[in-house]
Fold these 3 entries.
Entry 1:
Amino acid sequence: MRGAVLVAIAAAIGNMLQGWDNATIAGSVLYIKREFDLQSQPTIEGLIVAMSLIGATVITTFSGPVSDWLGRRPMLIISSVLYFLSGLVMLWAPNVYVLLLARLLDGFGIGLAVTLVPVYISETAPPEIRGLLNTLPQFTGSAGMFLSYCMVFGMSLTNSPSWRLMLGVLSIPSMVYFVLAVFFLPESPRWLVSKGKMKEAKRVLQQLRGREDVSGEMALLVEGLGVGGETSIEEYIISPDNDLADNQEHAVEKDRIKLYGAEEGQSWIAKPVRGGSTLGIASRQGSVANRSMLMDPMVTLFGSVHEKLPEMGSMRSMLFSNFGSMFNVAENQVKNENWDEESLQHEGDNASDASGAESDDNLRSPLLTRQDTNPEKDNPGEQVSGMGIGGGWQLAYRKDENSSGLKRIYLHQEGGPGSRRGSVLSLSGGDVPAEGEFVHAAALVSQSVLRVEDITSHNLIDTATEKQPEAAARGASWRDLFEPGVKHALIVGVGIQILQQFSGINGVLYYTPQILEQAGVGVLLSNLGIGSDSASFLISALTTLLMLPSIGVAMRLMDIAGRRWLLLSTLPVLLVTLILLVFGNIINLGTVVHAVISTVSVIVYFCCFVMGFGPIPNILCSEIFPTRVRGICIAICALTFWIGDIIVTYTLPVMLNSIGLAGVFSIYAVVCTIAWFFVFLKVPETKGMPLEVITEFFAMGAKQTAASAKN
């Protein structure tokens, strides 16, 4: 895990530079105005601040497709170079026009970093901690703002503060970012797979995961190249080898997957439930119910995965000891009398102790592997192989019953046999004995991008994933954007970016100095001998500092409570604080009461925003798109972000003059209300799920939505 964490920290420095620049320009613009006498030229003054927004918007238009072409790592290197050059030019800037050019270069660097760092982290992080690592850009961005405000505050105390030095310091951390990007950051393994560079992708994965056996995740990355296609939901009963011997009515013998436990000699059989298709019935009932309450069926599908996890420590949960997890599975030894000696040497001798102690050096052999079937006893055409892919998911393969193709199966354990809460894994009736060690598993079944001849046994999985798949040779196409699952994901991504920009963060930032001045902070600092300019910088630094603990809490909760829960929990708090600010500006509560209410509201707003609506839109957008079109789709979402930022920034003064502060905050409150309903009805929970499984759910949910509309 350490490799992925260090890579994410290094990549997030790009967002630290963005936060650093935002704070520096906010402080240095006071001195720029004085030197160039811009008090009578508000347009030029506005352009100095806005040029980075313009540059970020322009570069974002190209960043996605270019990153799909060149790779994620080269774009991060280019971002660091742009940061460095802009810092040097701002340090030199003899006139305002050279300064505007430098700000444009700086905007290019910001646009690349803000757009691609979340994508890069999502593509390199394991599912179990992807949310935590993808919150790092928010943390480093706020930390950069705090450090920059401290620097500006210190410089403002000198006799002749230099705005050139304030802006030029950016070159120093950008050099660090450049060195890390060139010598430390690897290329995204998912991008390498999309370009057919299989051996390099495997080598990067081995470095990131800290183990040699990455065949399961390599196969997952190859499968992620597919866009569209039919996906069906099936159910499996997982049990010890002999537990289903007397209960054959739901089992089809030719479809068998053998699972090997952490201890030597333990194994189980997975058999599909056929006939009534209980999951299909539950899915159809859910679609009808959701249509009546406007909730997207996709949200229910995602929610069913997280509805009831296995109870830790129970005997039944040990059937899948941390099923498929890349980090919490103890080293194990797979033994089968049909395996040859060479296979055993390849898998290694990795028996675990009976305690099942956790180890980071794990998964040297897969939990889910091929069932060796005897052609004399079983159907030889139904050979199945599988492997863990992280986040409690397994990837398995079987031959298509109706063609010569290959089916992939994403399997997930969802709870013990007692689950009857409407989960996608719950079985109606009572046909499974409570005392039997059965585990219900959901299965997403769709066409594989691999061929049947590539998967003849587990030992050839490595060989199969070293070949360039046909999907990689085809590359991305604009037609892929019109696939139902991709369109569905774009609606979620673009929608949440728009709502984030209009939820009030810019207005609250604009109003904060005035609020804190009313609270008497400025008077207190002036009594300490600190001038008004320096006081405003110190206040901004303290405000930013308050965000950091809240972001730390969000990092902890992102993969535990989840993205959706954080949004649904923090948006009502944002709404309440905005309503309080509205009342505080309408009703005369007295100077002291008004200052207290406004100050508390602003602080709570900031803390809750950086826990939810700040980082999560970018996290979601980096997770929900297929690998082949991720760059293009991210560019669309990021472009929406920057255009919204420009609109809100430049309409705010006009709105303040026309409807006042209370009117502006009222609009923001309405947007927060709309955002809560949008999240509740449209935004799924993606915590702990591999990216490829997330896109599969989107494709399936989109088709269910279309089917519901027709009916």
Entry 2:
Amino acid sequence: MSSEPQRPGSREVHDYTEEYGYHSDQQSLRLRRGPSRVSNQNQPQFDWSSPHEEEDEEGSSGPPRDLRATPLPMALKRAIRQVQQMQVPVVSSRDSWKRKKAKSLRKLKDCGMGFLSFFSLWSKTLQKIGGNFGGGVQSYFLFLRFLVVLNFVSFLLIAGFVLVPSIVFRSVGAALVNSTGQGACMVYDPNPEGLVVFYNYFLDLLSGTGFMEYSYLFYGYYNNTMVEDKNISYNIPLAYLFTAVFYFVFCLICIIARMGTAARVVVATGSSTVGDYSMIVFTSWDYGCLGDRATKLKQKNIHYQLQVDLEEESIKKRAAALTLSQKIVLYSLRVSMCFVSFGLIIAAFYGIFAATEFSQVKSGQGGILGLFFEYLPSIVITAGNFVVPLLCDQIALIERYSPSTTVIVALLRAVFLRLVSLGVLLFTLWRQITCEGAENTGECKLCQYNHLLYPCWETRVGQEMYKLTLFDFLINIAVLVLVEFPRRMVVDNWSNKLAQWVGRQEFVVPGNVLGLVYGQTVVWTGALFCPLLPLINTLKFILLFYFKKITLFHNCRPALKTFRSTTSTFFFLVVLLFGLGLGTVVMIYSLSEIRPSMGCGPFRFFPSMWSIVPTSFNNLSIITQEFLFFIGSQSFSIPLFALSCVVMCYFVALASVYGKSVALLRAQIKLEGRDKQFLVKQIEMLSRRQQILKQTAGASS
């Protein structure tokens, strides 16, 4: 190749790149030492030609370094780009085809990502919420969106394996077991006959009785049929059982996967202010923000994140400055307030227990009074969940925790209240269904459950969960219409000191997250007895999203005390995992211990719901049975357990190595910060000495 004349500015490019250590084999702007017509032939020349030509000459197969990633001044980059645009590169047909292919693939990828983002639920709304109210409030709406998707996918699972086959095969097939059982235990006819007063349909819709009870909404309407044909064979009871089990496994996998994503963020920041500050400064800005509105929202979001870090750091400094006597007073105050909060929670439990027993005794009445007795447990649970958390929030203010710790403590107390209150309701129902655990005495002797009070106890439990879900939704609407909007109108239009002191409400994230966890726990508890409850909860959460969005933008003001969204997001999922655990315990106990109702449901002739599994197993072929026995044997489980232990030990060792590396890097960052502070101090001292010397020299002259 003939030598090129040296262009102006090539020497400056060489000096700058040599200083920062970028050599010719790592950049698209290549430097060459070639023969030149200029007198100074030993100076390296900068090749302004296309980098693809040199790749062919040098045999380099790697992609060229992007000009934007090269550490050069902006003026020099602009000049280089102008020179490159002036030249017409000589490109072979093969390279041209590669370029066109890469460009088309890039466009296809961008179109695909844009198409997927179009179907992403409420992405613009969530960006707007994060910009105006911070990441803490945004984490609530992200959590709500996750639950909407989880419930909808769960409904598709239940509909595909239980609901649709039950509708299709309802008039086809025969009973799985032909046993008749006890005649008194099989009496169950919820379908009313004759004329019904119109308002009774409304009462049935609210209570889940009447026409609602005799539908696919509840357990009792599903048959114990098995379809056997030349082309198809379907076992409705087995599908019902396995779908319920897989539904819980699917929810567990989704929660753990999302917890892993949130945990990576927490580990990356190290739950420290320094790590979080570094992520905010270097990685928080979204360069895809287009327009002034999106830019301002992103700036507000970053402002809220920095505000959280400053508040956390100031509280830590105040806590470190406390004396020993002040710490003793503070910790004794926290312990005493903890006992007070637990006393309130226990009082709420007793009220729920008494209301549930009274409601079950008076449940036979009709009309509005009967509807009140039906909803009495839901009313007491909702009242306790509303009053006790408010008192616990005031107690948390006295305890003087940091904002993030206050959120976690308040959420733990409220979660304990709500989940255990639901457990008290289920315990009261269990006492009445099983005659207080004595299944072979009294009214439970004939059927091993109280068939007189609960001819189809699974449907009755499903009705209670249905009423809790519906009542929780109605309470949210009532609070929005009757409390939040009137409060905002009074505060905005009345200049009284009392109104100004009350002010607009804040969006309390712990209470709202607790409502979501409670509603989802109710769905998990009643999914076995009310298969369409995930669909109802999906519609409820979708409407709740828009209601909360309206009240957030029109009735609420930004919170005075913010909190860290990274730790709160992970903790929300941990609390949700507690709710899944409660629902799993209820499902396992119902499948294995309590006798199914003999007058309804797909398991009416089995001693337990799980009995369908060994019965269906005996009907399998010999080869399939031997394979399943091998999977459950020691010869398969022991090697699998050993392999799992080895893999776990490997990942634990890998995590420990990464943790040590992260700790060393953090220590190096701290040392470099101290070195910089030392250098700054030295520079200040030298500048002061120079000023003193100048002053003395000026005075002497």
Entry 3:
Amino acid sequence: MIPVSLLVFVMAGWCAVYLADTLLRSSVTHRISYESWLASRGLMLSPFHVRWQTTMFNRLFAYCARINPRALYMWFNSGLVFGIAAMLGSVVLLIRTLQQTIAQMTTDNPRIGDPQTLQVVVPGVNLPTSQLAYFFIALLLSGVIHELGHAVAALREQVRVNGFGMFVFVVYPGAFVDLFTTHLNLISPAQQLRIFCAGVWHNFVLCLAALAFLFLLPLLLFPMYATGAGALVTEVVQSSAADGPRGLSVGDIVTGLEDCPVRGVEDWTSCLSHLAHTPQTGYCVPVASLQPSWAHGRVGHLNIKRGHSYRAATGAPIGQVSTHVGAFKRLDGTMDCCSNNSLTDLCFSYIKSQGRSSREREYACMPVRKMVTGTRVCHTDDDCAAHSHTASICVTPSLENQTRFIRVTHPPNTHMLFVGYPPHLQYAVSLTNFVPRFGFLHLDLPVFLETFCKYVVSLSGALAVVNSVPCFALDGQWMLNALLEATLASVVIDRQKRELIGFFLLLAGSALLAANVALGLWMVTAR
């Protein structure tokens, strides 16, 4: 659901603007001066919509339209080809997205299925409030570049630009250009197509530029930031499993999760996924250090607390492991032989030979930090025998089915020990691939550049797709009309028939887009 506080804030803001506008327009003494002030600054106000228009950028557009005419001709012809292809591709993509949405609506688990390429974005719902600045700036930039393409293409085709402007609708910013309609109707359909396709073409180019910048970012920041040395912690969620004296801190560099090396954020994510979907790792410990808590003793029912980060190493040394009356069976069938709320001890299981043919699983409660510090990981006793000169055995933490024990390496600090569901550790910290080479450099600069580029790629690409759809009031409407005039004029002689064909195509495209938006909005806000 949409957060009530956000909805109240937006509604209160627009109500205040609309009330002030109504009072000033109804005032006998201030009405004329107020309307003159709005007109002189190109401002227009209406419910949930504010618009600003100016001619101050017209000279800049004209200058850009005169740069290398031959190169611009090739540039906008490329945009024409892309626009036609994008119009067809956007319809296919919307049909595919609609199928995915309907499939998710009819299943009990909406997370099952392929991720959608296009999603409705609602600030505060599926867009974190901490990311709003990135979203709105990237959206505005994408809109400005889109309209810049229209303006330069129009001036190159001798169509006058009346002005450029920006607007805010509810909370979404945007931009527009005002073209002289009479000039636009006098030029050929091919010229019109170059103008109408220029917007989505420039969005596509901006998307590619942002992708290239994102790909080259490690090289561009190489003199100031190093990569490949680990994942740098930039934020730790308070009271999470990664927080605390023996947890992770901002500025720590994570280099490993158990025996899985971490060279960057991608490795961090893949290692956690691997650990979550593979059996629990074991550890090689000397046989002499084990004293069992007999599994065939009294059995009770306990639930281990999830999400612990073991921060202390108090308790008996390895050679003096405390014993218990019995191992307790949890509700999921796994065994526990330690106190339910212990933050220092953990129940380990191992296989003990009882003669040549008999092998029995036993359990021992051990001080976890001392037990796993400096030990080799294993899966069977043979792994320990191959790398140890003393009699060693492979012990495995006895945990609930989806719970894992993970050693997080972040030198020069001691290991952070985590017990819980691996995705919880992923959500507890924010990391980056970029490690500052100098102390005065800010940790968040690469994060800001990465995040902003990702938003530009996403939003500029989305604008290119949505505006290409043959839909009323979008660029796709004018692109389709110009394309039909350029291709069907010699086949369908009657202009009214061509317009009727265009109308039904636009109606179908509008219905397709409306269905995607309506169902996508319902999926985001109601589920």
